[in-house]
Amino acid sequence: GENVEQHPSTLSVQEGDSAVIKCTYSDSASNYFPWYKQELGKRPQLIIDIRSNVGEKKDQRIAVTLNKTAKHFSLHITETQPEDSAVYFCAASWSIIQGAQKLVFGQGTRLTINP
Amino acid sequence: DSGVTQTPKHLITATGQRVTLRCSPRSGDLSVYWYQQSLDQGLQFLIHYYNGEERAKGNILERFSAQQFPDLHSELNLSSLELGDSALYFCASSELSSYNEQFFGPGTRLTVL
After folding, report:
1. Residue of A nearest to B2 (CA)
2. Count of CB atoms within 10 A of residue A3's CB?
3. Angle at the Cα of B110 (from B58 to B30), degrees rounded to 5?
4. Tens of pLDDT, residues B46-98
5. Fewest beta carbons within 10 Å, which of A19, A85, A101, B20?
């Protein structure tokens, strides 16, 4: 069945350093790959997404890369700041039928930025 | 604020009981998704409704059911509750297209005692 593996489960970096989170997916038909950030007790919020026809996307300090051949995608956060501390979820989505979309989430990475 | 609302915020009930969680999507969004997030767990997809019709099912238990009404709000019904059903339940909504961001509501925290 559909599966998304996310690594590492926890990540601790010094403020100002970079953080990288990696995900692999099982279904080659997946075509949309969002990343969500969830602060404690809050809702998940989209921080960046990438579609299958693009290999890389960047938004200020955040970038995502996609390797469709290897079925993996990664989140890169540069110049990390304390407010980046949160749980990050990757997800793989695909259309089942017109108007139907299913998201399968990774297990999450708890990122801690140490001052 | 994502524009998605969920009620109630918290719900405490006993085993064997039945509860209903409510979700109102963003204005104009036709799709509603339900997710379950247990303690220190990821987000488990339960079910997707599009314009009133069920479109996709995830690992939703038979004791759980959902529906989407003509005004597009959705309800998730959980019955014969067990301790293990304690979790955060999120709904999310998205536009018509299959490639759009899902906007999450604030969640309902269910505690089964």
Report:
1. A45
2. 11
3. 45
4. 999 989 999 888 889 999 999 999 999 999 999 999 999 999 999 999 886 55
5. B20
Kindly state the average pLDDT of the residues A57-73: 95
Using CB atoms, which residue from A89, A101, A108 is nearest to B98?
Answer: A101
User: Residue B45 is which amino acid?
Assistant: F
Put simply, the answer to whether B42 touches A108 (Cβ < 8 Å) is yes
The CA distance from B63 to A63, in Å, is 41
- Contact between chains at B101 and A34 (C-beta distance less than 8 A): yes
Residue in A32, A105, A107 closest to B99 by CB: A32
A56-59 and A62-67 beta bridge pairing: antiparallel
One-character DSSP codes across B34-64:
EEEE-TT--EEEEEEEETTEEEEE-S--TTE
How far does the CA of residue B14 sit from the closest CA of chain A (Å)? 23
A13 touches chain B (CB under 8 A): no
